[in-house]
């Protein structure tokens, strides 16, 4: 990404954008120091502390059936 006056800095921690960024700004590489001691698993994208959660569609009957018979 070229350093020009029109580009804005996007913080990785932001969840909402207040302007319409250009493609180059939105998908620019992340700058800054990297932790050399992080494993590949620690660098993986996560949306909660324990990992990445995806939406799932399942029936309530099947969920309860599995929950009730899990330990038996």
List keywords for this structure.
mainly alpha, 72 residues
Describe this structure in words.
This is Pre-mRNA-processing factor 17-like. GO terms for molecular function: mRNA binding. InterPro entries: PRPF17. One of its GO terms (cellular component) is catalytic step 2 spliceosome. This protein is mainly alpha-helical and 72 residues long. Helix content is 25%, strand content 0%. The chain contains three helices and no strands. The protein has helices at residues 23-26, 40-43, 60-69. It starts with 22 loop residues before the first helix and ends with a helix. The mean pLDDT is 82.
Question: What's the helix and strand layout?
Answer:
Layout: H1 23-26, H2 40-43, H3 60-69
Give the overall average pLDDT. 82
CA-to-CA gap between the ends? 57 Å
Q: What is Rg?
A: 20 Å
Put simply, the count of helices is 3
**SS class:** mainly alpha
* Helical proportion, percent range: 25-40%
GO cellular component, one term: catalytic step 2 spliceosome
GO molecular function, one term: mRNA binding
Organism: Napeogenes rhezia
Protein name: Pre-mRNA-processing factor 17-like
